[in-house]
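Quick check before the chapter quiz. The format below is the same one you will see on the exam, so make sure you can read both the input and the output lines.
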Amino acid sequence: MKKKVLVLGSSGLIGHQVFNYLKLNSDFELSNISYRNKLNKDSVLIDARNETIFFNHIKKIKPNFLINCIGVLVNEAEFNPGYAIYLNSYLPHRLEKLSNEINAKLIHMSTDCVFSGTKSSPYIESDSKDGITVYAKTKGLGEINNNSHLTIRTSVVGPELNFRKEELFNWFMSNTKEVSGFSKSIWSGVSTIELAKAIKWFINNNVSGVYNLTNGETISKYDLLLLFKSHTNKVIKINKVDGINSNKSFIDTRKLIGYELPSYNQMIKEMIMEIANNPLLYKHYNF
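Here is the expected output.
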């Protein structure tokens, strides 16, 4: 029997990549829910804040795996904290309860931003979530940590289906002459494609609790921008500046994933190839 997988937030940065990757690289029976924009003809548009309609539809699908890619990002969380509290903090726990009721496994997305970036060594799974922003606090409260469900804690870069500038790659691509790259802002996340690959692996393997998803390497935001420039062949000047002194790097101490995550150079190369091979999906990018 095919595994039934439901992706929530399917038109977002993470959600669309996860759904499309699983569609092409698995035999799962897929369905998806989005808020405003349909990912495909089968997408169902529902506001997750409308609990009755939202949860009744999930119960109707009866998924084996529920992948929660719904979330309020940094700027919107500061502007509308009530919205962030509901979607980032309350909703994951409500989905946990529902998953228990319908015998499904919840896979929830968290972030390195639950940490402040002031620790002298890389963060591990059990470290105190000391982030102070609305986004950090609401995402920290939303993490699910038990033996039945999985929270993937990471940070991502990747293409979006629209051209909003909050995400790093979109911001980079929207600039034309020059940008500043922070050499003291340290990152250890993954591309959205690598996250999608990991989710497939987690679906096929029994892992629960909180999992730090990283290749174990670190890279500055400045060097990450250099990789963007190299693989897109974009003509732009990248100024190296100190910027914000922040190191939210983290490590995977659990070591359960049965394959090796690639280098950042390989991740970005594959990310750009994915965009180039899907010009209708990513028509707002021009290499």
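If your answer matched, good. The radius of gyration is 18 Å.
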